[in-house]
Amino acid sequence: MVNLSPQNRSTFTKYITKELEDFGSAKLRMKIIIFILLSGGVWISYNEVLRIPSLKDKITKLEKETQIKTEEIQRLETSLIPFKTLALEKYAGSENEVLKKLADKIKELEQLDALKNEKISSLGVEVQQAKENVQPNQLIFASKEILKNNNEYIVTLKFRASKNEQIGQVILIVKIPRFSKEHIIDFWPTQGQIFVSGEESKQISEDRHSARLAYQPLYSPSILVDLKVSGPISYVSLRGNLGIEPFIVNLE
Length: 252
Prior knowledge:
The chain is an alpha+beta fold. Helices cover about 40% and strands about 25% of the residues.
């Protein structure tokens, strides 16, 4: 650290002024500035002097960032001109008051738009429910269970209604694999089901590889029918009324 005496202050100040004018030149970079005189006489270290170019870079960077932000503010102000003009035409008061009134109006419109969208969504749900209400009651396949009873295999097929109301007449047609050595023994509603049937409710083909069941189940949470076959089979195919499209039930 070095302290400059008051007697040499004027001479050294002129020297420093000349050197600072040449701050960006290669000549000054080759020199080592030991100290700099500030008002009143200030101690300054060698390391602090070497940090001056770095500070200059930081200042340049900050100036560029400030310029970018200033340009962004100007762009935003330009984009607000149409809104300012509209607000001044529609409302009375100072510019800030007018812009606040316009902002409040925009917020009010946004709230109305949100309410409108909510109402549209609610109406969409109501329309969907109305469509479902006019749809006829349908049977939907739910699950299967396989039980071996002596030499017979009992496949219980479970269905559920799409609506909580009377299902009407049920018609089911089942087929086992065409070249299977097994055959259908019976096809009938599961024991415990309440239903109405007729003489031709159950029909089994001559080769006993397909069967048809037609009956009127009374109200029940689920519809269950039992397919009895002579032995294990890999699958059965099913189709019927009440929306039952042909599908395969894997039994392996």
